[in-house]
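lol ok so funny story. i was supposed to be doing the assay writeup but got distracted and ended up predicting the structure for this chain instead. priorities right. anyway since i did it might as well share w the group, maybe its usefull for someone
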Amino acid sequence: MKFYDRKTELETLNRNREQSKKSACFTVMVGRRRIGKTSLLLKSVKGQNYLYLFVSRKNEPLLCTQFQKEAMEVLGLQIFGTITQFHDLFEQLLLFATKEHYTLIIDEFQEFDNVNSSIFSDIQNLWDK
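and the output, tada:
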């Protein structure tokens, strides 16, 4: 995808990524549908260590299994057993981030509400620890 007039946005994302190397950083990107948010995020992490998760309307255990597999393949994260709850998955992802710097991109984050609405408070609780 060709990017037009996205230099400022890429610089901001790169600055946030550099800042996250010193201290955990949480960045939210919002905007209308089909304007290139995902493409912009993926361009900003090109050549970097990142994990991309797409939240679809599957049940929680199925999504957790899928996300666990992706985290293990992409990041080399060691998880023994099968994770079936988002809370446990995000706990593992945050724990891994204390040892290895990476960017986590969650596409269609709002879809968590259709799968398990408690994930929002779970993530907040884990983040605040």
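The chain has six helices and two strands. The first helix runs from residue 7 to 20.
back to the writeup now i swear
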